[in-house]
Specification:
Elements lengths: L2 E7 L6 H9 L6 E7 L6 H5 L6 E4 L6 H10 L5 E4 L5 E2 L3 H12 L3 E10 L2 E3 L3 H11 L2 E3 L2 E3 L4 H7 L11 E3 H6 L11 H12 L2 E11 L15 H23 L6 H16 L3
Parallel strand pairs: 1-2, 1-4, 2-3, 6-11
Antiparallel strand pairs: 4-10, 5-11, 6-7, 6-10, 8-9, 9-11
Helix pairs in contact: 6-8, 6-10, 8-9, 9-10
Length: about 280
């Protein structure tokens, strides 16, 4: 088995068909789909059963997206692991192009760009941000593939720079496990915290092409809602915690050259989110 696709889901009977269909529509065929039910109370199980060959499991770890993803990986059979949220979808070439980059260049992980829903339109990632990234770090480009180099984790904090959506991640399972998996104490911002740890100790690339569609549904934890809502306060709380944990990793890491700059930027971000708590 080449790739295990892990789809965590909680009460997503209304969107899971779209996510699964986008995986079944991949140009690559050597994969399995594992839907991890995070203790849903709707008809999710029955909807998943409509798709022959899709494996349905109930989350046996901590409740939440981190626990569900980690549990899915623990049951997976593939050499590589890919993640897709249950309300999002992939472009048909996602797995084939990502695995090709990993195997062609001998890398541990691959990310790519994504479209973000803004009302009835789709927002693209600013190309000039990628241009700055390549220029600032003098990165090697091989066609549409950007080899991220040894300093990308430090850059993403010190700059700050963000271009690492969990929906686009395809990672060698051994590297995923060695990086410590997702932090199950974080209900949100777990993908940011994990990506930092992964990029700090693994070789990775960024594909300059759009592989995912990120939907902002009303049940999305970080959907745009009034700033005084409980949902925003909870997200801010988790984000502060994630930044604190990243700071602890930076302080103890021998791979970060300018720790002071990283910690200064982290403290700025913590102050921003503390206001929302």
């Amino acid at each position: 088995m080449k790739v295990s696709v892990v789809i965590p889901a909680h009460n997503r009977e209304h969107t899971i068909r779209r996510a699964i269909a986008s995986v079944l529509n991949q140009t690559m065929e050597d994969y399995e789909i594992v839907v991890v039910d995070d203790r849903s109370t709707d008809g999710l199980k029955d909807v998943v059963a409509e798709f022959e060959g899709v494996r349905y499991v109930v989350n046996g770890y901590t409740r939440g997206p981190s626990g569900a993803r980690n549990y899915g990986v623990s049951t997976s059979l593939g050499k590589y692991v890919a993640f897709l949220d249950s309300d999002d979808e992939w472009s048909p070439n996602h797995l084939e192009d990502s695995v090709s980059c990993l195997e062609t260049y001998g890398l541990d992980a691959s990310y790519s760009l994504w479209y973000r829903q803004r009302g009835i339109s789709w927002e693209e990632y600013p190309q000039e941000w990628l241009d700055f990234l390549v220029s600032d770090l003098n990165l090697e480009e091989r066609g549409r593939t950007i080899i991220l180099g040894d300093h990308i984790a430090e850059y993403m904090i010190a700059k700050p720079f963000w271009c690492f959506h969990v929906d686009t991640l395809v990672v060698d399972k051994i590297s995923f496990l060695q990086s410590g998996m997702f932090d199950e104490d974080l209900a949100s911002s777990e993908d940011m915290e994990f990506s930092f740890r992964l990029l700090l100790g693994s070789s990775a690339c960024l594909i300059n092409g759009y592989h995912a569609y990120y939907y902002e549904g009303s049940d999305n934890l970080v959907a745009r809602v009034p700033e005084d809502s409980a949902r925003v306060r909870e997200h801010a709380k988790n984000t502060v915690k994630a930044f604190v944990q990243i700071g602890q990793v930076i302080e103890s890491s021998s791979l970060i050259e300018d720790k002071a700059a990283c910690l200064e930027q982290l403290n700025r971000k913590i102050d921003e989110y503390e206001v929302l708590r």
